[in-house]
Design brief:
By secondary structure, the protein is mainly α. The relative contact order is 0.20. The protein binds a DNA duplex (13 and 13 nucleotides) through helix 2, helix 3 and strand 2.
Length: 108
DNA sequence: ATGATGATTGGGG
DNA sequence: CCCCAATCATCAT
């Protein structure tokens, strides 16, 4: 696998500050990085480079839908993401929606 | 260097 | 619910 770009390193570092039991969104992450494009953040997480050192499963979409995992937006991988989050104490509906907005982490 | 792509988002019909 | 434009790091030519 290719070497991580500086941008990726920053994404991972920031993501690691999200505590267990909380999630964040692509948009918020992007904002915390000073990047105006949440899609760019998605790009950085696409391959899940340092799992599970980097908790890429704690990142969901701004509308509180499940988002993607391991390079996919739907399918078995996503089901696994939901399980992971539940095991960390996140409350999700069966179709993968965050039920408690209080569990979104606000970067300080 | 140039053009296409994506784990997004917000606004509109 | 579906469709569209804006935005930007990567990837493929």
């Amino acid at each position: 696998m290719p070497l991580p770009t500086p941008f990726q390193n920053r994404v991972y570092a920031t993501l690691c500050t999200v505590p267990r039991g909380y999630v964040t969104t692509y948009g918020r992450l992007a904002a915390a990085l000073g990047c105006g494009s949440p899609r760019a953040v998605g790009m950085a997480l696409r391959h899940n480079p340092f799992a599970p050192r980097v908790p890429c499963h704690r990142v969901i979409a701004a509308d509180l839908s499940i988002g993607g995992f391991n390079g996919q937006t739907s399918g078995p991988e996503i089901a696994r993401k939901i399980n992971l989050l539940r095991s960390e104490g996140i409350t999700l509906s069966d179709d993968g929606h965050l039920l408690d907005p209080a569990q979104v982490w606000d970067f300080e």
